[in-house]
Amino acid sequence: MKSRFALAPLWRWSKWMIVTLSLLAVTSGCMASSNVRPMPKAEQGVIDLREWSWNEDGIVPLDGQWKFEWFPPSGNDNPKSSSVLSTLEVPGTWGSMKTGNGFPLQDQGYGIYRLSILHESQRDMMAIRLPNISTAYELYIDNQIVITRGHISQSASETLPFQLPATVYFKAQNSQTDLKLVVANFDHRRGGIRTALVMGNADHIQKLQIRHAAQELIILGCLIMIGFYHLGLYILRRKEVANMMFALLCLFVGLRMGLIGEGYIVQWIQAFNWDLATRFEYIAFVMSGWAGFGYFQAMYPLEIKRIWFKISSAIAALLILCVLTVPPLIFTSWILAFQLYIILFSVRVLAGLVLSGLRHREGAKLALIGVAGLVLTIVNDMLFYNGWWRSTDLVPFGLLFLIVMNSFIISLRFSLTYERAELMSAELTEWNNSLEERIAERTDELQRSNVTLENATIELERMEKSRTQLVSNISHDLRTPITLLQGYLEALRDQVISEPEQRDNTIRLMLTKVEGLNSLIQDLFDLSVLEARKVELTLEDIPLTDWKERLMEQYELEMQAKQISFHCELAGDYSQGTTVSIDIRRMDRVFANLLYNAVRFTPQGGSIAITMTTLPDQRAVEIVVEDSGAGLDPEDLPYLFDRFYKKDKSRHSSTGGSGLGLSIAKEIVELHGGEIRAYNAQEGGSVFEMILPMSS
Description:
Elements: H1 2-30, E1 46-48, H2 54-57, E2 60-61, E3 64-71, E4 84-90, E5 92-93, E6 109-118, E7 125-130, E8 133-134, E9 136-141, E10 144-149, E11 166-171, E12 176-185, E13 192-193, E14 198-201, H3 202-236, H4 241-259, H5 264-268, H6 274-299, H7 306-325, H8 328-333, H9 335-358, H10 364-385, H11 395-423, H12 426-493, H13 500-531, E15 540-543, H14 544-561, E16 565-571, E17 579-582, H15 584-600, E18 607-615, E19 620-627, H16 661-671, E20 675-680, E21 686-693
Parallel strand pairs: 1-6, 16-18
Antiparallel strand pairs: 2-14, 3-4, 3-6, 5-13, 6-12, 7-11, 7-14, 8-13, 9-10, 9-12, 15-17, 18-19, 19-21, 20-21
C-alpha cells in the first residue's frame, strides 16, 4: 500500500497531462485556417477568383451554386429519362436538397455539375482536390476528361461504383477554366458531393494532401500499435478479457479508417472493390462498437451487467448478418439502425461509468471523460453523414482520445497488479496453485465417476424394465397353451381319451400347441434382440423393380389359391430407377406379417395391393400395403404395434397370431431408418404405410 500511495502524485499529474494533450490533439486537427478574408462563392455556375492570390491566400473551396442537370432514375431502368436543368448547392447530398427551381432530388440517379472558374492566367500548375463522391464520377476540365472513378451510366445495371479521393493537376493559362463533373449513384443511400472540392496551386494542394495523409497514417499507426500491444498482453494472460476487447476496438477502428478517407487499404489490396470495402466498413463500424462495449463491461462488471453484453452481441450479429446478405443500397439506407446501436450502448457505458465514478473505481473518471468526448464526436459524425451538419469526420480523434486515456488506465492497473503480486508470498502462491490443481483433478475424477454411475443406473433401469416386461409377456401368453397341454396329458394319463383316432387327434393338437409355443418363444427372442439394437443388418442395394418382382413371385400363387386378387406396382415417374438399401431377409418377414394379416381378414373375391412410390424431395420410398377387408377398429390404432396387444379382432388368439408380428415389423422398419403406421382407407379396408430411405 505504501508504493501505491507513492504513485498517487504521479497519477494525478499524468492524468491532467494526458487530458490536456489529447484535447490539444483533437482541436488541432479540427482548427480552420486563420485566414480572415471571406471565401468566394459560386453563383449561377460561375465563381470569380480573379482577385484571389494563390500564393498569399492559399487554397479556396469551390462552394456555392453550380449549374446542375439532373437525370432521375426511371422505373424500368431506361437511360433516356428526361433531365431537369437548374442549379444546386455544393457541397450537399442529393436526397437532402432541392435544385434552384425547387425540384426535389433523390439519392439515386445521375447528375452533371458544371462550374466556370474565372481567374488570372497562371504560369504554374494548378490543382483541384476531389473528396469521396458517391459513388462514381468523371471530371472534365475544359471538355477534356482528367479523372474517372468507377464507371458512370444513367442505367443502374451499368454503373460501377468506386470511391477514393483524388487530386488532378492542370494548366490554367487562359482566364477561364470550365469544370464538368458527371456523378452517378445507384448503390449507396447518399449520392452527390458530401464535402467541398478545393482548388489551389500545385504546391498548396500537395501540402494539403500530405497533411491529410500524415494525419490519417499517424492515427492509423497508433491504433494498430496499441491494438497489437494489448493483443499481446491478452495472449500472455488469457484471463484479462478486457485486453482482447481493447485490442479488437483499436484494430476494427483502424480497419474502418483504412477503408474510408484516403482509403489506404483499398489502394493497398486490389481485391477490395467498392462493394467489399463498403461491407467491411459497416462490419468494422459495428464490431468496434461491440468491442468497445465489451471492454467497458469487462472493466466494470459490477456496474455493467453481462446481460447487456449478450444483448449487444445479439444485435451486432443481426446487423452484420444484414450487411452480409443484402445489397449495399439497402443496408446503407439502414444507417440509422447502426448509429442507434452505437448511441444506445455508448449511453449505457456512460451510465455505468458515472456509477463507477461514484463508487471510486480505478480509472472510472478518466474513462468517463474519454467516453463523453467520443460520444460527442459520434453525434457530430451522425449529423455529418446524414447530411444534417456541415462538419468533418471527428470520430477518429475521439477514439484516439479515448484509446490513449484507456491505455494509460490499463497500464496503471497492471502496475498496481504487479505491485500487489510482489507483496504476496511465493510459498503461499505455490501452495494455492497446488491446491487448485488437486481440486481440479478431484473434481474431474468425481465428474467422471458421476457420469459412469449415471450411465450404469440408466442401463440397470432399462434392463429391469425389459426383464419385468418380458416376464409379464411370457406369463401372459404362455399360461393358456401350457394349461391346455397339461389338461390333454392328464386326460391321456387317466385314459379319459382311449379311442386311437381321438388319441391321435389329441396328440396332433398338442404338437400344434408346442409348435405355437416354439414360434412365440422365437418371436420373443427376435423382438428382444431388435429392441436392444443388437442386430447386424446385411444390407444390399435392391432396385424397386426387383423387389416388386420378388414379392409377386412369393405371394401371387398363394393369393390366387385363396381367390384373392393380388398385385404389386410402382407409382411415380422416378420409381423405375430407385434403389433401397435393405436386409432383404428381414424385410421379407415384415411383408409376411403384413400380408398374412391382410389375408386373414380379406374375404374371397377381395384384393390386396402393394404400391411403391418414390418421394424425391424426402429422399425416401413410400410402400403401401392395402386390403379390402373389414378394416381396423379406430380404438385399436394407437396400440396396434404394441407387444401382445390383442383387443383388435385381427390380433385375437383364435386366429393363431402371437401378438408380436406387428411389433417385430415395426422394429425392423425402424432399424432400417424408416417408419411405419396404420390407418383405415376411406373406401374400407386397412392400410399399412412404410417410409424407407433411398440408397445413398
